[in-house]
Amino acid sequence: MPRGIPNAKRDESALRYTSFHVPLAPNPKHVGSTYLKSESQTVWSRNAIRAHRTRTVSDEAGAATPTETRRGAKVIVIHPGSRFLRIGRASDVTPLSVPNVIARRYSSTVPSQTYVEGISRPREDRKRSTPSTTAPPGDEYAVNVASDDPFDAKVAAITVSLRDRMRFYKLRVTTNSASIATTFNEQFRPEIIPEVNDPYHVDWIHSSEEPYLVGETALRLANPEEMGYIMRWPIYGGNFNTRDYPSAQLILSDIETIFRESLKLKGIEPSAYKDHSVVLVIPDYYDRLYVESLVRILLVDMGFKQICAQQESLAATYGAGISNACVVDMGAVKTSIACVDDGLVIADTRMVLSMGGNDITEFLYVLLEKIGFPYRDINLARSYDWKVMEDLKARLCTLAEGDVALNLYDFSVRRPGHATEKYGLRAYDEIILAAMCLFEPRVIEFEQKRAGMRFLMRAPDMAEEMVEQSADKLSERYTQAMMISTQHLFPVVPPPTTLEQAPLLVTPALQTPATTEGQSLAVSPQPGASASATAPVTPSAEESAQAAKEDQGGDVEMGDATVAESRGKDSKGEEGKDDETEKDEGGSEKEDERKVKSEPESTDKLLGPDTDKEKAKEKEKSAAPDAAVEVIDVDQLDDKAASQTVTATHPPPPHIPTQMPFSAFNIDVAFEASKLPLDVAIFNSARAAGGDEKIRKYLQAVLVIGGTALVPGMAHALESRLQAIATPLVPNMEKVQIIPPPKDVDPRVLAWKGAAVLGKMDGVADLWITGADWELFGMRALKERCFYL
Predict the structure, then answer these.
(1) In which order are the strands placed within the sheet that holds 420-427?
(2) Which residues are registered as beta bridge partners of 770?
(3) Long-range contacts, stretch 262-270, CB < 8 angstroms, 24+ apart
(4) Does 160 fall in a domain?
(5) Measuring CA to CA, which residue among 409, 395, 403 is closest to residue 711?
(6) If we measure between CA atoms, which residue out of 627, 741, 37 comes closest to residue 322?
(7) pLDDT confidence of 10, banded at 50, 70, 90?
(8) Is 185 helix (H, G, I), strand (E, B) or coil?
(9) Does residue 374 sit in the same domain as residue 514?
(10) Are residues 598 and 713 in the same domain?
(11) φ, ψ dihedrals at 438, nearest 5°
């Protein structure tokens, strides 16, 4: 500080090495200017007036009128995904589906292809021909763990859930099915099919001089490693695949190359880009850098005329022709959930689950390996072997309990340099257990799935960062649905002194298993698994008591029902109760109660007198003064002024990135929320939209899209499980309804169809962003023209 200046004020202007003084902000009362006080003075309005004048002058000059074309022929709709890129003109009936993969020539030694395992594996000594569960004599629905392998215990817990549903629907169980299937599969020898008799023969590429190959052509490379090509999938789970790429620039270069090659297949050359507009479909829960990079590629690098970005859930509602829905997009890597209200995605309802169709494929492979899969040289890292399992998943997997039978299936293996081989396969409940991992994610290794992924940071642009600082809100990082789903991980606080009888939130809980006189199951919580994904089961009373101490108090209560009760009879096996014990303890009353808690076929079974008795008992438990659990009222959660120490649902500080742990509690909210079962996540998403009225509104309009939605029985499986959760917790809850896609519309392309509808509407004229707008505003252009950013 210079001498002779007493009590000098500290300079907060950051201009400490200059004599320039920053003037004070003007008093708005003394300002007489009208600059930017009306809509007509904005740059968007000026551009619209200029474009209108240009068209008027051209018409008056008698300019040649262009030939009449179909509406939307100059609009390209792009929907990038983890496995496929949907691209095409808005006037097309269906898009072009291109595998989102590129094989690029590598100058040095190509590293060998590896597969990142996302499903638990059995021990080496129990990989093949060793069943995970056995049926005890006497009760065909009971399940015994075959060994002390943790994988067997996890599969047994899922099998118990399946047996409970089969018991409710009075479906018989085939005894010794695993042994019968294993004996057949191990003795089967493949049949060789000549090339002339194979209608699906693949023309493998054994030599190529191209610098890169895209899509189906890349997948037809006979041996990419020996040919000097490295295969990469640039997009993973709605973001960039940073695991397989050393730099972000390589990712963007590959994405642009895939875009250009796919457009060539549609007959659109680079010279015509300047005449076409683009509707880009982005994830609901998006990363700002991901959206900004894609827009920069399309507007700046490829030079399209203008662009409009739209979220997947909103595009899906356009395609389905509805205005309100809870959209569940089940992709290959992730499952995104969001509620749409009159053309607006409710930001607080967005959730992303780290599981999808690839997990079903891998789990099916692991289960088939246990029963002696006849194709023994399979390697999921190879594209053609992965295609074999994808074909088996599409033809075998189901969620309808009535389809479970010891059937015979066949499949063909096409490998480069070998004749086509036809195999036979026998399987029993593996076809439904694989798909049930969406509702029982205990077998999914979430930590392994994100291993190696890096968080990309944008180059610091101080001017833009200062402008966007206020927009960097928590709603773009942790949504209310995520906070609801992870509140059980927060420190436990004393319950309120008074409890209002209101439906509370469904959250996964560390459940304490109940002991029975018969056989029960146990799965110890895995280090990387969430509380919802742990399988609660023990083989003895002593271990149950020990587990109860470790879990600190047993089930977390949720007002009218616990998680185990609200999820229907999926939890009956987790509590370790078999049918004989229920009859001994309660006779017919227990039987009725089991039916109430099971996933029924109709709503009437959930509204009987036993439900009222059960509710009364649970209310008495909730009102007990010595309850050692946290009970959170709906009003407290909706109250923005509620204390964080009371509700434990307030967002983290805004400066914490999504990938950083929650500083106060060391919790990665987004990652922990991604481990939820599908049915619980849908209910929590609807709960984040508002009160009971909103829950009823969105659970009666659940729109399921994506490739995984094609699994037979998915609609009924979701309906029954959601009904079992919502009926005890939501007053006057009617039947949950799953809205099917429109007739003859593939759910995999429904979001693309909706974006194509938007691209042909007159209202999209207010959403276009040109290259000049992007150069002037950058990311602010999307923020000002797209109300959801």
Answers:
(1) 191-193, 420-427, 407-413
(2) 306
(3) 262/85, 262/87, 262/96, 262/98, 262/214, 262/215, 263/76, 263/87, 265/96, 265/98, 266/87, 266/88, 266/89, 266/96, 268/76, 270/302
(4) yes
(5) 395
(6) 741
(7) low
(8) helix
(9) no
(10) yes
(11) -70, -30
653: containing domain: 479-741
- Say which range, 63-77, 219-233, 603-617, 744-758, has the weakest mean pLDDT: 603-617
In tens, the pLDDT along 394-407 reads 999 999 999 889 99
Evaluate whether 218 touches 261 at the Cβ level (below 8 Å).
no
- 483 and 376 co-located in one domain: no
Greater confidence (427 vs 64) lies with 427
CA–CA separation, 467 and 44 (whole Å) = 18
How far apart (Å, rounded) are the C-alpha atoms in residues 420 and 413? 6
Residue 89 lies in a domain: no
Which residues, 6 or more positions from 771, have their beta carbon under 8 angstroms from its beta carbon? 299, 300, 303, 304, 306
| CA 121 and chain centroid, separation | 23
553 and 408 fall within a common domain: no
**375 within a domain of the structure (yes/no):** yes
Mean pLDDT computed over 589-606: 39
Per DSSP, 576 falls in state T
Q: How far is CA 20 from CA 23, 24, 25, 462, in A?
A: 9, 13, 15, 20
**Count of CB atoms situated within 10 Å of the CB of 634:** 17
Q: Is the pLDDT of residue 584 over 60?
A: no
Same domain for 518 and 397: no
Mean pLDDT of 271-299: 93
Domain presence at residue 46: no
Indicate if 432 and 485 belong to the same structural domain: no
The Cα–Cα gap between 682 and 506 comes to 10
Tokens of 596: 């109430």
Q: How many domains does the chain have?
A: 2
Name the nearest CA neighbour of 415 among 189, 221, 188, 187.
221
- Same-domain pairing of 656 and 516: yes
**Helix (H) and strand (E) counts in the chain:** 28, 23
Q: What angle do CA 433, 687, 537 make, to 5 degrees?
A: 35
Q: Which domain CATH number covers 173?
A: 3.90.640.10
Q: 279 phi and psi, to 5 degrees?
A: -105, 115
Identity of residue 369: E
What are the CA-CA distances from residue 85 to residues 81, 156, 215, 216, 693 (Å)? 6, 38, 9, 12, 38
Contact (CB, 8 A) for 119 and 362: yes
The reply to whether 414 and 534 lie within a common domain is no
The SS3 assignment for 301 reads helix
